From TrEMBL:
Residues 829-842 have a biased composition (Basic residues). This is Myosin IXA. PROSITE patterns: IQ, MYOSIN_MOTOR. Residues 787-842 are annotated as: Disordered. The lineage of its organism: Eukaryota, Metazoa, Chordata, Craniata, Vertebrata. GO terms for cellular component: actin filament; axonal growth cone; cytoplasm; membrane; myosin complex. Residues 552-574 are annotated as: Actin-binding. It comes from Tetraodon nigroviridis (Spotted green pufferfish). InterPro entries: IQ_motif_EF-hand-BS (IPR000048), Kinesin_motor_dom_sf (IPR036961), Myo9 (IPR046987), Myosin_head_motor_dom-like (IPR001609), P-loop_NTPase (IPR027417). Residues 1-670 form the Myosin motor domain. GO terms for molecular function: actin filament binding; ATP binding; GTPase activator activity; microfilament motor activity. It is found in: Cytoplasm; Membrane. GO terms for biological process: establishment of epithelial cell apical/basal polarity; intracellular signal transduction. Belongs to the TRAFAC class myosin-kinesin ATPase superfamily. Myosin family.
Amino acid sequence: DLCALPELTERAILESLRARFRQEKIYTYIGSILIVINPFQFLPIYNPKYVKLYDNHTLGKLEPHIYAVADVAYHAMLQRRRNQCIVISGESGSGKTQSTNFLIHHLTALSQKGFASGVEQIILGAGPVLEAFGNAKTAHNNNSSRFGKFIQVNYQESGTVRGAYVEKYLLEKSRLVYQEHNERNYHVFYYLLAGASEEERNSFHLLKPEEYHYLNQVTVVLTSETSAPRVFQQISVATKVPPEPEPERWDGIFSLLSAILHLGNIRYKKKTYRDDSIDICNPEVLPIVSELLEVSSKELIFNYMTRKNKTTRGHMSKEALNFRQAGTVRDSMAKSLYSALFDWIVFRTNHALLNNKDLEDDSKILSIGVLDIFGFEDYESNSFEQFCINFANERLQHYFNQHIFKLEQQEEYRSEGITWHNIDYIDNSACINLISKKPTALTLLDEECNFPQASNQTLLDKFKRQHEGNSYIEFPAVMEPAFIIRHYAGKVKYGVKDFREKNTDHMRPDIVALLKSSKNAFICSLMGIDRRPAADTPTRKRVLCLWSQASLNKLMETLDQSEPYFVKCIRSNAEKLPLRFNDSLVLRQLRYTGMLETVRIRQSGYSIKYTFQDFVRHFHVLMPHSTPPTKSGIREFFRRSHLPPAGYQVGHTMVFLREAERQRLQTLLHQEVLRRIVTLQRRFRAVLERKHFVNMRQAACIIQAAWRSYRERRRFRQRRDSAVVIQRRWRLFCQRRCAAAVTVQAAWRGFRERGRYRRVCASVTRLQALGRGYMARLRFAEMKEERKRLNTEQNQPSEMDVGPMEDLLASEQAEKEEQSRSADETSHKNRSKRESRRMREL
Ligand SMILES: Nc1ncnc2c1ncn2[C@@H]1O[C@H](COP(=O)(O)OP(=O)(O)OP(=O)(O)O)[C@@H](O)[C@H]1O
């Protein structure tokens, strides 16, 4: 922060800035004002890491950065519920547009919190489209914005982006038909010619850049056009975003751009030397133009050669145009068409940026506006455009002075009893009055535009007469048609040539009517939206002193209703060389922007003031409970807060603070609020955790109970199942044992019974044998008796009869042996069986 410099001189500031620049620190604070020195080299300080780093910090806590300004504006908007604006100023090529882009990027990133909605994408996507149509290469800047823009990002009260709105200021139309040496026309023409496909080339009659008069007046440089097709595609996609995906619109844009270029190729010649009447040298161009614009070629020729005039009796008369007039008509038509197209692009962008929710509910919208307006310009030859641009810069510088110097040094200090020494600064009110306050420069210009006999010379004469003796305007000593204005940034000489013409709208009503008759709906609609009043307005009555009239005042009103932040861009060197610091160039810019005075006033002035009520309301968190909003109460607070006494003063009804002290208090407030938030969070989290814990414990008990009962059931089931199995096995075992026992018993009984049986059998057999033997013996005895009796009877016993008896006895003997042998065997077997069973049992 330059306010912290021990020695406050131009040199000290310059050296400090240079030393920082050498370390690639391009950002420096003066209190809450940010100075940016364009490095002309991309530094790695804009990646998402930095977006995160600069989220929600007080200014000055971290290294100065453009993101810090965006962040502070964003949080101030949310805290104070007030709109904020960031005013970026600096001369051409100082980095305003680049800074705007960084700001918009950060402002949308802050709102996204990780997820990008469509609106943010559209806001970021609108940039390249507007740049293509409104930027051009100039001697000072290869991508110079030739229009001013105020981008207003709208937020919901929650801080999320709701939509955005772009306001454009004064497009430099003259560039379309004429460019200075080393400059170019608008980028979009080169993108179109380099990026169009072969089919598009044929259907839109596209030629090479050097074949167009509007492009070939200076050497056409197409070196950077390697990226043109890509940019062209990007633009074509961006302009097709919903809600109007009409491809014919894009075709309409192609046709219009091509028609403008072909229009510029129309050349006139005088029919005869003495006569003023003219002819078109290349009539073959007209059918192409009429085809592209889809208007009648006969009407087109008629309008390019003649003009309708209203006679004093109210009739319309036809007047042939002279050579100069015809050229003017051609160029003004091209300019008006391009301007209408640019208006449409802005309108279209706004349409896409306008979130439909805006229409649905009426909740409060907060906004942060970023103003990127063309820088102060002082070229070799300056014309009406530079006059308007520099006037706008005067107004902005005035706005800056108001906020930084004037508001701080008002009567208030005295009436509040504040000790104060005024700091001098360059007040540019007189220069603004010279240009805009009646009956001065712009009103004279308007008058001369409405007066048919007037010329630029008569305008200059009026200037001279009216402002003789005014120290802010001078006239060159030699008879030069020019005047010099002493701006806050230095003297600038303006040539009055074309002043009147450039200040008036030359789009004639009959040409508007012709374009409105176009069969191309897009071209027709362009005329409808933008030019409707012109058709009814007499030529030369529509004065376009945009800066003296409505738009600049409206901008100033918007800025006045917002809390401003200032970003001062400084060009480091004229040659656009990377990281080159040119002392004299930087010093010149520091001087004319009043940086030294700014540092002084920021260092010693009380830039912040609060009423007692506001102060207590704002900082009540730091104060004991029920601190009264009175002088004594606030003094007591300051006494206890140990702020350096020079940093604040308590007036009769207000508290005055220096920026550093405000920041200190703000930091304390921030810390205290954070501490309380943390305490609250801690308690709340503890409650939540306890609740959570109780719930968890309950849940754990339920789960445990369920688990245990389940486990027990499962165990019981397992036990029951295994018991059943065991029982079953036991039963099986028992059954098997029983069966075995039965088998053994059966075997034993069988064995026993068999033994018994065998014994019985043997006994029976023996009994039978005995019985039979007995019987046989009986019979034998009987037979013997018989034989004896027979023999006795016959007296001679026969041998033959004895024989059978002996046989019988022998067979009985054999049978006995056999029986005893089988009985032996059976007993042997039984014995061995018994033995083996005994063995098994053992
Ligand atoms: N922060 C930056 N880092 C790197 N390069 C930068 C930075 N700012 C600007 N530049 C370079 O400087 C060039 C000019 O910047 P820019 O177009 O933003 O200037 P400007 O002030 O808007 O000019 P004009 O008023 O003519 O539109 C850019 O094209 C870019 O190359």
